[in-house]
UniProtKB/TrEMBL annotation:
<dbReference type="Pfam" id="PF02600">
    <property type="entry name" value="DsbB"/>
</dbReference>
<feature type="transmembrane region" description="Helical">
    <location>
        <begin position="12"/>
        <end position="30"/>
    </location>
</feature>
<feature type="transmembrane region" description="Helical">
    <location>
        <begin position="69"/>
        <end position="91"/>
    </location>
</feature>
<feature type="topological domain" description="Cytoplasmic">
    <location>
        <begin position="163"/>
        <end position="170"/>
    </location>
</feature>
<feature type="topological domain" description="Cytoplasmic">
    <location>
        <begin position="1"/>
        <end position="11"/>
    </location>
</feature>
<keyword id="KW-0997">Cell inner membrane</keyword>
<keyword id="KW-0676">Redox-active center</keyword>
<keyword id="KW-1003">Cell membrane</keyword>
<dbReference type="InterPro" id="IPR050183">
    <property type="entry name" value="DsbB"/>
</dbReference>
<dbReference type="InterPro" id="IPR022920">
    <property type="entry name" value="Disulphide_bond_form_DsbB"/>
</dbReference>
<comment type="similarity">
    <text>Belongs to the DsbB family.</text>
</comment>
<feature type="topological domain" description="Periplasmic">
    <location>
        <begin position="29"/>
        <end position="46"/>
    </location>
</feature>
<comment type="function">
    <text>Required for disulfide bond formation in some periplasmic proteins. Acts by oxidizing the DsbA protein.</text>
</comment>
<feature type="topological domain" description="Cytoplasmic">
    <location>
        <begin position="64"/>
        <end position="69"/>
    </location>
</feature>
<keyword id="KW-0560">Oxidoreductase</keyword>
<keyword id="KW-0249">Electron transport</keyword>
<dbReference type="InterPro" id="IPR003752">
    <property type="entry name" value="DiS_bond_form_DsbB/BdbC"/>
</dbReference>
């Protein structure tokens, strides 16, 4: 089966399955390998959840013409959010050790103790746990996330631009 000839629905179903696989791997790494996610990691997971939800809705609905851009736009919003978070995470990881922000409270405590706007500011400022490099196959996890956000965006755009096959009325 040639991926360049997949229908819109199949492409979006594959996008959904990839997102669920990535989230499943994140949970496996957390609970089996003991890799505790930092707040930026959790926000990257949210980006994949948003993308996965709209990939699934697009696959189920299977719209024509402009409706396809609606779902693709929502998938791309999730990807853009994830790209920004992963980029920020990689930037924090690249800082020299003396410039890394001190470790802060966990995300659950921040949501309980502070208003949402302050939580966002604190998360994007980063903390010491965000600077820890945990390589998987030689690359840090946020770089893998960034690559997947880009690849899934390309998948969504390619599926949307592909011409729909005419339906036969019998």
């Amino acid at each position: 089966m040639n991926p360049l000839r997949w229908s819109y629905r199949v492409s979006f179903l594959i996008g959904f399955l990839i997102c669920m696989g990535l989230l499943g791997f994140a949970l496996y790494a957390e609970y089996q390998w003991g890799l505790e996610p930092c707040p930026l990691c959790i926000f990257q997971r949210i980006g994949f959840m948003v993308m996965g939800a709209f990939f699934l809705l697009g696959a189920i609905h299977g719209p024509r013409a402009g409706g396809r851009w609606f779902y693709t736009g929502l998938v791309l919003l999730g990807a853009l959010f994830g790209i920004v978070v992963a980029g920020r995470h990689l930037w924090i990881m690249s800082l020299p050790p003396d410039e890394v922000p001190a470790c802060g409270p966990n995300l659950a405590y921040m949501f309980d103790a502070f208003p949402f706007a302050k939580v966002l500011k604190m998360v994007f400022t980063g903390s010491g746990e965000c600077a820890k490099i945990q390589p998987i196959l030689g690359l840090p996890i946020p770089l893998w996330a960034l690559l997947w956000f880009l690849l899934l965006s390309i998948l969504a755009i390619r599926a949307t631009l592909q011409r729909a096959k005419p339906r036969l009325l019998l």
